[in-house]
Specification:
2 strands; elongated; 76% helix; 9 helices; 232 residues
Amino acid sequence: MDTTLTVLLGSAIGVAFVHTLIGIDHSLPFVVLGKANGWSLRKTLGLTTVCGIGHVLSSVVLGLLGIGLGTAVASLEVIEASRGTLAAWTLIVFGLVYAGWAFARRRRGTRHAHQHDGLVHSHADARPTHRHSTPSATAAITAWSLFIIFVLGPCEPLIPLLMIPAAAMGTGVVVLVTVAFGVVTVATMLGLVTLAYYGLRLQRMHWLEQHAQVMAGLAIAASGVAIRVLGI
């Protein structure tokens, strides 16, 4: 294999792994939403895969568009940065709205009444004896929202990795670099989500389980804040 190609592929693999590993938005939203809504690992990983592919492909399309138009790498990275800012704020808003919805939904369900000795008793903290699945419509909205956020999200390292070999080595190298970057990115996301999914034992933490959806929304918002503040 050509030395330059080896370096490019190695760079694509290394950058993809590190970029995904330090970007908490690549795994945290899926873990907390999956656990809060009682999704199976298979369903959680399925959504992770779709969002990961959309995350990579949106940057591939932008990079290929730049190649076709002869746009400078710096110009495309500016566009990617603006997409990153938009995605971060979208995560923050989505997380806060989701937490607010979950809190209001829980408040509506915290009172219950029953009849005892001819009198009606009202209780302020009724805890269900079993978990109820999130309605399919809500789950679909949640999934689509995450997908759109990830399509808008940045994958800045892919832009120079695509355009530099395209200028010097041709289409075949672009395809190889893209596939390597995409596969490693999605695989790392799946690995992180799986580890965190099994690591969280919400059923052993009663209070946290009762507030799981609120905590999920706040965690997603926090990941958006981390992107803005830390630039990860």
